[in-house]
Design a protein that fits this description.
This protein is of the alpha+beta class and 511 residues long. Helix content is 39%, strand content 14%. The chain is built from 15 helices and 13 strands. Strands 3, 7, 8, 9, 10 and 11 form a six-stranded antiparallel sheet that branches. The protein has a three-stranded mixed sheet with strand order 1-2-4, with no helix packed on it. α10 packs antiparallel against α12.
Length: 511
């Protein structure tokens, strides 16, 4: 790899703590701290994403596996962690920061910046009494899921490599007082930037308006080319609008593919509208607007599937408060937030229309979509498989086609409810102005055939912890073509044996 091309521009532009002190503490007046990754004596590279490495300018893997585990780093790579704040489960948490992430720096290709960081490579001043390590379980989940989201067409961070550290890490997976040893691991992940809402919240909370402005200018200049910086008195307002637009697009895509993030704290919200921090996430199995995979989010379900839109709105409002000193126009911000709420549901309905194969949203579709949601909720049908069963000429659609999406034995009245809906769907689809072939093509590009379900990840993790990576690599192959049914054995509902299985249907933030 071309490690010599990695630079540290961020650390040259912003104030930092260069002491190298890893003591977990408050770091006032700085945006980052220089840190040293932990020493691992027996690392093992599991996988390397060569396509991504080539795309960002790092090139092919040579004798670089040590770098991928944050070991034996060249002198020019000055590693650091950043400070940010955030609201966690709706409550202000104060300073947080990169507790498990350590930056290598940035690399540029064709004028495009990519930040590179390790996750799980050791403690930082922001680890908050933790060890900064990650376990193989959570590392496999992030490595595969971030790549799955990329191939689904969802804005996301990406994964460059996965390595075992050769040491055991103690984790209490369910916070039940029963900690266990698990194999440690490090993921190298990439993004144009890992800046979060929380970086701006931190500076606002500290009344560091000059530094807040400098960070906003840096973000706009490097990542928001659509915002005009030249003699533009409204540049920060336009930038906030652009952040809202990107966030909206991301959340709509989450709904399209059935992704539930699980922990949408403001410190987990990317300023670039990227899906970031894959922790207790899940793809939707049986449709349930109240579903949350995160045991920490029970019983309130703040971050449930059906609430992700309104939570994104709430999080953007906290960002608006943070950057208010740059805009100083409450009416402008209020209008953007009001428009976000309206635009979100407009685009949500347009997304649903495509999933159903409709060429446009008609006035009566609001009622149709509401009836569909009620059907899915009442019958607990599999979200992904339901739409696959619709993906055929309407004359061929029958109730029996949906049996593979049933998570329970439907009663006669429930089967009749499904039958009535199918007839309504057929009648609605006849109002299309596009052909049946065009409609099916639209559906095939919108509805995935492969989603990385938690039970598949659970099995892959169990095997990997026993040294067997066959399923891991098979899932990696399958996720690269999610709109094609190349692996029908993965294209099925969650088997009942995984119901209430810790690590599959029930997840925590433990990693």
């Amino acid at each position: 790899m071309n490690i010599t091309a990695i630079t540290q521009n961020f650390t040259k532009l912003f104030p930092g703590d260069f002491s190298g002190n890893l003591m977990q503490r408050q770091t006032p007046d700085v945006l980052f701290s220089i840190v040293e990754p932990a020493d691992f004596n027996n690392t093992e590279l599991i996988d390397f994403n060569e396509d991504l490495s080539l795309a960002i300018g790092l090139g092919k893997l040579k004798n670089d596996s040590d770098f991928l585990a944050a070991q034996n780093l060249p002198d020019h790579v000055e590693t650091y962690a950043t400070a940010y704040a955030g609201h966690q489960f709706g409550n202000w948490a104060g300073q947080l920061g990169d507790g498990r992430a350590i930056y290598a720096g940035e690399i540029f290709k064709d004028g495009k910046q990519t930040e590179i960081q390790w996750k799980g490579a050791g403690a930082t001043p922001y680890s908050r009494h933790a060890d900064g390590r990650a376990v193989l379980r959570s590392s496999i989940r992030e490595y595969l899921m971030s790549e799955a989201m990329f191939h689904l067409g969802v804005a996301t961070t990406r994964a460059l490599s996965l390595s075992k550290t050769g040491e055991d890490v103690i984790r209490d997976i369910q916070y039940s007082g029963n900690p266990q040893k698990e194999p440690g691991a490090v993921v190298v992940r990439t993004a144009e930037s890992f800046l979060r809402f929380g970086h701006f919240e931190l500076l606002a909370a500290r009344n560091q308006t000059d530094l807040l402005k400098k960070l906003a200018d840096y973000t706009i200049k490097n990542f928001y080319p659509e915002v005009n910086l030249e003699n533009n008195p409204n540049q920060y307002t336009e930038w906030f609008q652009a952040v809202c637009d990107r966030t909206l697009t991301m959340i709509i895509d989450w709904y399209r593919v059935g992704f539930v993030h699980g922990v949408m704290n403001t410190d987990n919200m990317s300023i670039l509208g990227l899906t970031i921090d894959y922790g207790p996430f899940s793809m939707m199995d049986g449709y349930d607007l109240e579903f949350t995979p995160n045991t920490t989010d029970l019983p309130g379900r703040r971050y449930a599937f059906g609430k992700q839109g309104q939570i994104s709105h709430w999080n953007l409002a906290t960002l608006a408060n943070a950057i208010f000193p740059l805009i100083n126009d409450a009416d402008a911000l209020e209008k953007i937030m009001d428009d976000y709420g309206k635009q979100f549901w407009t685009e949500h309905d347009q997304m649903l229309a495509k999933k159903f194969g409709f060429d446009e949203v008609l006035p009566e579709d609001e009622r149709f979509f509401t009836e569909w949601q009620q059907l899915m909720q009442d019958l607990n049908l599999d979200y992904t498989l339901f739409f696959q069963s619709l993906e055929k000429p309407i004359s061929d659609i029958k109730v029996d086609d949906f049996s593979n999406s049933f998570y329970k034995n439907l009663t006669g009245s429930e089967l009749n409810q499904l039958s009535v809906f199918i007839e309504k769907y057929k009648a609605r689809k006849l109002k299309n102005k596009i052909s049946e072939t065009q409609s099916l093509d639209l559906m095939s590009k919108t509805n995935p055939k492969f989603i990385l379900r938690n039970y598949l990840l659970f099995d892959a993790i169990q095997d990997a912890e026993n040294g067997d990576y066959e399923l891991f690599f098979k899932l990696k192959q399958a996720l690269q073509n999610p709109y094609e049914n190349r692996f029908p054995e993965f294209n099925q509902k969650r088997p009942s044996r995984y119901d209430n299985q810790t690590g599959s249907s029930q997840l925590s933030c433990s990693s």
